[in-house]
User: Fold these one by one.
Assistant:
Number 1:
Amino acid sequence: MDKSSKNLARKRKRHKNLIPLLCLIVCVVVFTISLFIEDLEAEVEGSGHDSLYTASKSQVSGSPDSMRSPQVGETPSRPRKQSTSTKAVPEHRQSESTFDSQIKAPFHVPYPFRVYVYDDVVSTLNADLQGRDSCYTPYTAAEMVIPDLVSRSSIYTTDGELADYYIVPVQCECYMTTKIQKGVDFSRAAAALNKAFQTTLDIVQSRYPYWTRTEGRDHIFIFPSERGAQILSDYNMQRIKKSIFLTGTISRSNTRFNPWKDIVIPPARGPWTSAKEALPALLHAADPMAPSRTTMLHFRGILPGHHDLNPWGIRETLAKNLRREEQVVFEEPTEKCGRNCTRREMLQARFCLCPTGGVEGWSLRIFDAVMLGCVPVLVADDVELPYEAGIDYSRFSVKILERKAAETAEEIRSIGNSAHSRKEDALRLTKQHFVWHEEWVENDAFDMLLKELLRRVRFMRNSPYRFWSMPVPTG
C-alpha cells in the first residue's frame, strides 16, 4: 500500500471514531433544547390557568381569603401560611386537566378550608369515561360532580401545601358500569378496576408528598353506591383505610364504613343527569304537595326470587301482607309501568315504601319520594342516611323495624292526618338538602357536604382552628 492510501485510511478511521462523539453532542443539544421548551410551555400554561382562575374569581366575588368575614360565634382563623415550595404541582403533571372546569364560572363558598384535587393521576382508571351518559346517573354521578364543584369553588387550591383535604377523583362505580355494559363479567371488571386503582394509589403515594404526612387521613375517595368501598380488594382497602370515604346510603354493618370518619351523601341527581334518569318534566310542573293523594301506601319494585318461587327477605314479607290491602299499591315494574310511570304513581301516594332487601339501588327510592312529596317509609334497621348529623329524619319519614314488616299497614293507618301534614311540611323544608346544583346554594347537598368537612377540618394538618387570635375565656 502506498503512502497516500495509508493517509486516506487513517483519515477515514479518525472520522469514523468521531461519529459517536458527534452523535452524543447532538443528543445533548436536542435534550437541552427540549427541556427549555418544556419548561417554557409549563410556565406559560401554569400562569395562564392561574391568571384565568384568579381573574374570574375576583370578578365574581373577590379572593377566597379576603371574601370571608368571621361568622358570629366562630373562632377567628389565623392567616393562611404561604407555600414555601417553588412549584405548586409536580413537574410530571399532564397539561390536560381531567376536569373541564375552566369553561364554567367559579363561585364562592363561605368556608375557610382548602381542597386540592389530584387531576392528573387517574387517566388509566377514568379513560374514556368522561362524558359517558352511563356515568351521569344518580347512582354514579357524584364521582364526577363533586370534584368538578370543588375545583370551581373558592375552597379549591392548586397548591397542595395549603390544602386541608385532598380529593382523589377515581370513578370506580362508573368504571364498573361501563365495563359491564360492554359485556365484561363482574369479576373481571372488578379485577381490572383494582389493578387500575392500585396504579392510582402508587402515583399519589410516590409522586406527591401529601399522603405520607397523615397516612392519607385527609384524603377523600368517592364511593357513591350502597356498597361503598366493598368493590375494592383487601390490599387496596388496607392502603386507604384511614382516608375519608363519601358513600351512598349504606348499612352500618358494612365493615368498610366508619361513621366517625366517612360521610354519607345523597345521589347526585341534577342538571347533568341523563334524560332517562331525570324526574319527568310533568312532575316538576306539578305541585308535589298537592292534596289529591288517593293512595295510602305505594311500592313498585323488584321482588328477588319471586318468579322462580324462591322468594326471600323483607320484600317477600311485605308482599304477603300488603298486596290485598285497600289503598295500597304493591307491585313489580312492568313493560307498561316503568320508572316514570312509577314516579307518577308516587306523586299520588301519601306514603312511599322504601324497603331494603338485597336489591342494589333500593335507596334511590327514598330520594324520589322526598322530591315528590311522598313521606318515605323505611324498612331497614341499620341503614346510615345522608347527613344524619344535620338532618332529623324522624320529622319527615317513618321507620319500621324489619321484624315488624308484617305490621306495616297497621303502622301507616295509625298515623293521623295532622301527623301526616306535619311530615309533609317538613318535606318541603328538608328536600333542598338532597338537591345538587351547578354552584353553591346554601343548605343544598353540596353545602351539606362542605359543612360535614368543616366539622372535621380542625383535625387536619393545615387547620385554621389550631390557632386563634382572640384570648381564650377563663372565667
Number 2:
Amino acid sequence: MKSSSTLPASLTEMKSNMFTVKRPFSTSHSSVDSKEMKKFQLLAHKWWDEEGEYAALHSMNDIRVPFIRDTLLSMSSNYHLGNPLSGIKILDVGCGGGLLSEPLGRLGASVTGIDPVEDNIRTADQHKSFDPVLAKRIQYKSSSLEEIVEESMETFDVIVASEVVEHVADLETFIKCCSQVLKKK
C-alpha cells in the first residue's frame, strides 16, 4: 500500500477535501466533498431558474419523475388515484433546491430532502412554500446522509440520489449509509 506522500496529487487533494465527521461509535469519514459543497453554495440561489445553471436538471424531470413513479407503481399494488405515490416515504439525498422532491411530493409521496448546503435547503423551503400541498408532504433538512444515519432511527421505502454520486467523496460510505436508512423488506 502506498503512503499518502506517494499518492497522486489528485487523490491526496481528494482526501484533504473530505470532511471528517465525528460520530459516537464510528470512525468513518463523511462522503461529503468540501469542494463540491463550496461550488453548490455559490449556486444555491439559481436552482429554480429553468434556463440557468440547472436547466438540464429541470429538463431531466420530464424523464426521471415518470421513471421513478412508474417503477414504484410496478412494485406496489396500492395505487391512489390522483396521488399515486401516497403512502411511500422517500429520502431525496442531495436534494439541492428541491427540483425532484417537489414533483414526487405532488404525486403524493412523503419526501424528506437532505442536502449538506444550508442555502440549498433555504431555497428548497422557500420554493415549497408557494404550494400549500407540499408543506404537508415535504420536509427539508440541512444534513449529510451520515448525520441522518446517526441521528435517526427513521427508515425510508425509497432512496433517491439523482445526480449526486458524482459529487460524493467516499462512495462506499455513501452506499452503506443508504442501505442503513432503507426499510428492510
